[in-house]
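Structure in, sequence out. Go:
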């Protein structure tokens, strides 16, 4: 791929809704060149706006989304029950001023879980 082609592709990807004339003007190439590149795109809906993955952002004050591995990925990979998943979430999050509270909640969750295990009630456990 030539540097010019790379520049045009980069612009096209960042500006999906742009028409060939706009791309050509922004990249300093002929409109026919841009049309030739766009014609190589097989997907009929490539110009539609791409919705970000739910893992690309977070709601609230935590910063999970800026990390490569998020709590959800761990929960799914290990098929965690709700109590274990809650503990993992609290260990990984970084809400300013709430660190001690997170550990107090972890202790409380652990106490509940131990009580469940002692009583032989294991809701949510893997079979």
């Amino acid at each position: 791929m030539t540097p010019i082609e790379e520049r045009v592709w980069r612009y096209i990807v960042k500006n999906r809704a742009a028409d060939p004339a706009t791309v050509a003007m922004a990249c300093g190439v002929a409109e026919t060149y841009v049309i030739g590149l766009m014609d190589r795109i097989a997907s009929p809906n490539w110009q539609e706006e791409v919705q970000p993955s739910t893992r690309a952002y977070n709601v609230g004050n935590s910063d999970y989304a800026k990390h490569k591995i998020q709590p959800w990925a761990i929960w799914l990979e290990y098929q965690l029950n709700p109590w274990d998943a809650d503990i993992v979430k609290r260990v990984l999050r970084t809400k300013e001023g709430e660190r001690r509270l997170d550990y107090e909640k972890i202790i409380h969750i652990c106490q509940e879980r131990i009580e469940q295990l002692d009583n032989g009630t294991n809701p949510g456990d893997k079979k």
